[in-house]
Amino acid sequence: xxxxxxxxxxxxxxxxxxxxxxxxxxxxxxxxxxxxxxxxxxxxxxxxxxxxxxxx
Length: 56
Fold this sequence. Notes:
Blueprint: H1 10-16, H2 18-25
């Protein structure tokens, strides 16, 4: 892995403490969750589209 590349292991965080992942995904300026902004998880359906701001 490139030293400048960041890879968050979201599955590990979710399994370890799903509340922690929810805190990390929170945009504290708007109070909403950070959007996915990628189609990587779109195959999982509603809540995982690039524009969705919540965890399904």
